[in-house]
Amino acid sequence: MDLQLTRPICFFDLETTGVNVTNDRIVEICVHKVHPDGKEETHTWRVNPTIPIPAGASAVHGIYDADVADKPIFADLAAEVNGLIQDSDLAGYNSNKFDIPLLAEEFLRAGIEFDMSKRRAVDVQNIFHRMEQRTLTAAYKFYCGKSLDDAHSAEADVLATYEVLKSQLDRYQELENDMSFLAEFSNRQKVADFAGFIAYNGQGQEIFTFGKYRGQTVESVLQENPGYYSWIQNADFPLYTKQVLTKIRLKSFNKGA
Length: 257
Known about the structure:
Strand content: 5-15%
Distance between the termini: 52 Å
Number of domains: 2
Shape: globular
Order of helices and strands: EEEHHHEHEHHHHEEHHH
Number of strands: 7
CATH architecture of the largest domain: 2-Layer Sandwich
Mean pLDDT: 92
CATH topology of the largest domain: Nucleotidyltransferase, domain 5
Helix content: 40-55%
Radius of gyration: 19 Å
CATH superfamily of the largest domain: Ribonuclease H-like superfamily/Ribonuclease H
Number of helices: 11
């Protein structure tokens, strides 16, 4: 089943130095862009992460320090990647929890604003887990009847993810071929900051999801304990979480002005 699109959607996958959104870096990125008119294009970049690639990470994706020593750093690619995806919704496999947050960190380090408020994110893994509870390799076998021989190469993973989503739409009548529906369906919790440190409650208010203020609104916490803002800004939280917190703080200031 072809996707019904009102604007482009970019399926993407990252290979990285590790799984820490705040500290790890991209070593490979692939973007497969699907346009509403059916046109498709695939772009893959190897990236010098500027930090050593741990042996454990290399064992997973097969990319070693020597493979990326002469490749551009992400800051040199950021404008090109942003130009490709900025008009698009995003999709991936486990992308809401990992790939989008880490990509946002890389963009912010490169000085490029990354805003998800006007686009949708479809996480194919979450759809799969809600329906079948499997891995990407098993999903590809289950839905497409194919073996994912090059798992953990960015291009193989991203193209498999694209095929899996189309097959999911064919298989499940309750899934609507609509990016807004799929984005809502594949997001288990509505969060404000990708990493899930700030989420929304039933009234649409931003709340903290961790620590002693878990479940309390960000606005009320910052009013009662202004120092909590400074603590988060100076602690090891993702840059995007800090940016979101700053916007909430400024919004509160403007409301009281």
